[in-house]
Structures are given as C-alpha cells and as structure tokens.
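Worked problem 6 (solution included).
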Amino acid sequence: MPTITAARLWNGKELLDNPILQIEDGRIASILSRAAGKAPGATSPGDLDFPAATLAPAFFDVHIHGAAGHDVMEATPEALRTIGRFLAARGTGSFLATTVTAPLDMTLRALDGLARLIDHPEAFDADNRAARPIGIHLEGPFLSHAKRGVQPKEYLLEPDLATFDKLFEAAGGHARLMTVAPELPGAIELAAHATQRGVRVSVGHSDAKAADTRAALAAGAVSATHTFNAMRALDHREPGILGVVLATRTLYAELVCDGIHVAPEIVDLWWRLKGPERAILITDAMAAAGMPDGEYTLGNFAVQVANGRAMARGVLAGSVLTLDRALQNFIAFTGAPLDEALRLLTVNPAAMLGFSTGIPDQTGLLAPGSIKIGAPANLVAVDAQGKLLASIHEGELIQQ
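Solution. The predicted structure is:
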C-alpha cells in the first residue's frame, strides 16, 4: 500500500507531526504518525516523501471562470478536462464552475452542459487526473448596472423567481452559489427563495447601502463576492455593502489576492476584520490563466491580457491568478501562519457551502477542503511561505 509522508500534516483542523498517509485505490486508507510510534511498514514504489513540507488538503476554488485557454461556459469535455488538469497541477482539487452574465439562452445551455459533466466526470476525466467541478456559481444575471464591472449591461436582469427557477433547473441541482446585488427590486425575495432551494447567496456587484445588505443577510445571504471589487465604496456615514461585509463576523467574504485587484495593505485589513474562519481566497480566473499574453474570451466577450492584468473595455475582467500563488501572496501580505492561511482556500469555502462533512460522489465520500479517511487523496505539499512544492491527485504526483 503506497504511503505519503512529510514533516507535518494540516488536516483541516490541526497540525500533525511526521504524518503517514496510506493510500489505496486513490483514496486515503489510514492516517498514522511516526510521532506516535507507528510505522508505515514496507516501502512501495508509489511512496511519496516531502521531508521539509506540510501536507494539506487540495485547494477549493468557489469562483473561477476558466483557465488554460478555456472558459467553463463552453461546457464541453475538452474544456473541462483542460481546465481541470491545469488546476490539478497548481494544487486545486475541486472548484465551482462560475458563469458570467450572458444571453439567457446561452447561460441555460452552459448550465445544462455543465450539469451533465458534473454528473458524469468520466466523460472528461477518464484517468482521474483533473480537478473536478463539484457545483456551479451563478455570477449574474441579477447584478447592479452601477457596479457591473465587466458584466455586459445588455444581459443584466432584475431579480425574478421564475428566471431563477429556469437557471436552477438547467443546472440540474448543481447550482451551489449565486451572486446577487441586494439593492435591486426583488433581490431580497430572490435571496430567500434561492436559500430555500439550497443555493447559497453571495452579495456582490452591488451599489447597495447598509440597510439593503443587512436585509439580504436576514434573507439568507452567507458570503460576499470578491470583496472591495465591484462594490460601493466605504463611507463613514453610510457604510454601504462593504461596511456590512467587513463588520459582520458571521459573513464569509471572498478576496482576489493577486496584488492587482486589492492592494496588500487592504488585504491585511480584510484579514484582520474577517479572520481565519470567514475569509475565503478565490482566483476569479478566466481563460488566460496559465497562458501567454493575448486576447481571450470570458463568457461571450473578448478580454485583453498583458502583464498579469485581464482587461475588457478598460475594466478588470477576472484574473490570471492561481490559488497556489494566492496563498503565497496572502502570507507575504499579512504574515499569517501557514495553518491559518490554508483555511482560506480549503476549510472555509467548503464550510460556506455546507460541504464540511463531505458530499457523496460515485465511489464514496468527496470532502473538499479536508483530509478524511475514505476520501480521495487530493493533497498539496507546501513550504512555510505557502509555496506549492507538489500537487497530489488521487494519490499520484501531478507534474506542473
């Protein structure tokens, strides 16, 4: 039985010295420790050892549009396979395929295609080498015109329960998260309706005042989409959506930690306010992630990428960030301890979505953001500064 060993293991709750993970059929069969006087037994050709590293759960990205030249809204086996293999090599084990505002019929087709691929991952990942979409994040169409960012204004819609239900049904039960601007007419009713149907609501792309935001939270909203970006600015007399997001201790909050979307000093401020249990790192990556500078597509519009910036019509259009780089940046910007920083792209996004105890998959338990016996051996090995040293997918080392 192959083993994976390292200096430390962070299992989503605590640090364990000198861990020994035994792997069987790509899943974690046991978690032992040399520190407790237990030995792995005979060596195997498939053994992996990281003597100066910390093992941790593979990363979980709840806001990503694409990578490696493909957009998730293509919703084809080739697109999902290419995106998934790139992400797996960068330490991400699972993600929410995130849509962008587009013509409604295009979005419905994309959701239907994504749902089919989520239900049948063997259609794009026959050899288990790719990070997998385990749900869908609807970023639009119920967003603010004033804070739409790069979202196409002609396809934005006012919140409508019937339209949401069409999107929900097309997603085949896989819509896990939806971004909504709480100030729009009908947004509070939509937040309550979506929550009742099992979809987590995130506030964002919004010019909301504080009262509108608090109403959305009371209706069930649990998170904030790319905090600071596409939000009403903070004001000391009208704190607005941003003030509520930062001050509400129970609310999760995403952040794009690429040093472009948010300045390092503001990242540190966000960390101090949200803390290790409610902060979430995302990429908001689009098709250009992992690709050279050039022109790429986000949804159905063109984006120009140069020097690490993705721009459309003079506005930031997602990013080319990967979560392993986000982790390094975050530790450099804040000085956060490694185990606390790891929460932001493992445990916290899973908890926000209610995945803390795992979700069923075709062969057993899929537990994004944690390390559990019986779950796929999707792991990363990182150094003290958060640098990715190795990515392990279903017990096998993935080459970058």
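Discussion: The chain has a mean pLDDT of 94.
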